[in-house]
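Table S2 (text version). Query chain:
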Amino acid sequence: MPDVMKRIAGCLKVGAIAAIGVGILRRVVGTKPPEVTGQATWQPLATSAAAEKRSGPVQFTSAPAPEPESPAPTGPTADDSWVAPIDGVCPTSHPIKGNADSGIFHVPGGMSYERTVPERCYITEADAEADGFRKSKR
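Corresponding structure-token output:
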């Protein structure tokens, strides 16, 4: 049994010395930075007036700053399809709750309807879908 322990200890010493040697060799030789391959070829997600160049292996363009959101209207919209909730509650005329963070709308009787805090309230499911929301799965 002591011979086995000596062999294991010897292997560990050899492994430690090899790891130290590899570390020193990497430090001395160093690594090359990646070559610049040119500008990215994919289509931008949004059009921008002027592209700002940045350094690096691939040249990226900066996206335009998002426009600030306008506050939600407190009354009915022009087409009366949705209204903003009053104190976090939808009026009885607009019972469908739309959550702008998730892009999901909830119908009365749904699993998450009671705990959903709406940002918009809709008359019909079609109005919510037309506004870009999808129906909750439960």
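Notes on Table S2: The CA atoms of residues 103 and 133 lie 5 Å apart. The longest helix spans residues 2-29.
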